Amino acid sequence: MVEKRRPISVSEALERVLGKASLIGSEKVDLEESYGRILAEPIVASSDVPPFNRSPYDGYAIRSADSAGASGDNRISFRVIDHIGAGEVSAKKLKANEAIRIMTGAQLPEGADAVVMFEQTVESEHGITIRKPFKALENVSLQGEDVQKGEVVIDRGSLINPGTIALLATFGYSQVAVAKQPVVGILSTGTELLGVDDELVPGKIRNSNGPMIVAQLKRMGFRCKMYGMSIDQLDESYQVVKKAADETDCLITTGGVSVGDFDFLPAIYERLGAEVLFNKVAMRPGSVTTVAVANGRYLFGLSGNPSACFTGFELFVRPALLKMMGAGKLYLPQTKAVLGEDFTKANPFTRFIRASYDGETVSPAGFNKSNAVSSIARGNALIVLPGGSRGFHRSDTVDVLLLGMEEGASKWRL
Ligand code: AMP
Ligand code: MG
Q1: 208: burial class by Cβ within 10 Å (0-12, 13-18, 19+)?
Q2: Which residue has a Cα nearest atom 10 of ligand 1?
Q3: Does residue 207 line the site of ligand 1, with CB under 6 A?
């Protein structure tokens, strides 16, 4: 008899998954290797930024008091006594009506408290004249105006982006503590599966889920262990799953979690003594998505249907891996957009539709069935339509989850 599965909501399912995430620990990596990793310690400013008062322009450093009363009819003269570029420090100290020619980034000379831009000066025989008064600290980039020493600039759990790298370099971190990445394994199950190099033969299809998940992981900066493909045979699959589960923190299998005669994952979970967190989610595609835990390790049983497999990864695997690393932001970026076409077929389950989002409008990315492959490739987002009895119409505002944000847009509105 086929067991009756009780669907739970996506949020309930996610809560159960995240509730099982254990922190994986941290390691030190070289700064150049840290892009895309999760910070395991906060970044604390080891110095002020900027570390000294400096000139934000090419021009002349002056004492502002000397400029008092300057006007077009009363130009004030300065004698230029030195010339410094960024990285140089003048040995001179400014006295009355003296100026130092200074370039952007150079430390303000002693006595100086303002900078006159080149454009605001006229050169004279021994120096320059100016036609307006300057206030104290005018055109000065102040020590510590950006960051003050001791400040926590970025919290632990943040993704290291190029800007974070700039900060780390600024503060002299040649190495940085980052969260270790969980060891993730991928196993594709199905007697029908062929490798990418195999010729198509009747009844068989090439394994597209395995390579797709490798790429989904890569997009998160992860590598993975490949366990290849296994046929739908209980003992054989059990052996592979057992070995893979022992060697990884998180094993992703595709296929074999449904109630078909050759879907052996449920039996395998039982043999492993795994705790099944759920085996039915009120979502389309991917309602058969199953997540289990054995010896504190995740077993993600994704549907073999490519669109369902893809969605299951983004909805459950991604946040779980991020949580294991102590990341602060677990979820795909979310926005709202206007639906570009009608979607009238009502469904009691929440729908996640592969879609293409252009910044304003979002439209389904083609053939919309759980076994679709083409729409995954064409989409850059998932439309989220809540379950219920109603359909949705063009111009309705809907929720959108954004995928793979490293890809650009086809046009700009500037
Ligand atoms: P299953 O989840 O095993 O019931 O498989 C559901 C559908 O997905 C079937 O049509 C399978 O042939 C197909 N499928 C299963 N695994 C893969 C895979 N790795 N790549 C592409 N399609 C797959
Ligand atoms: Mg199968």
Answers
A1: middle
A2: 305
A3: yes
* pTM score of the predicted model: 0.94
| Site of tokens 């850059």 | 380
Ligand nearest the Cα atom of residue 258: 1
Greatest Cα pair distance in the chain: 102
Q: In angstroms, what is the span from residue 87 Cα to ligand 1's centroid?
A: 62
Instruction: Give me the residue label for tokens 């910070």.
Output: 39
List, for residues 132-162, the tens digit of each pLDDT value.
999 999 999 999 999 999 999 999 999 999 9
Cβ atoms within 10 A of the Cβ of 127, count? 17
Ligand 1 geometric centre to CA of 198 (Å): 17
Contact status, residue 297 vs residue 273, Cβ threshold 8 Å: no
- Say if CB 383 and CB 399 are below 8 A apart: yes
The per-residue pLDDT for range 167-209, each reduced to its tens digit, is 999 999 999 999 999 999 999 999 999 999 999 999 999 999 9
DSSP string, 320-380: HHHHHTT-S--S--EEEEEESS-B----SSEEEEEEEE-SSEEEE-S--STT-SHHHHH-S
Asked if residue 209 has its Cβ within 6 Å of ligand 1, the reply is: yes
Residue 47: helix, strand or coil by DSSP?
coil
Phi, psi of 268, deg, nearest 5: -65, -40
192 lines ligand 1 (CB under 6 A): yes
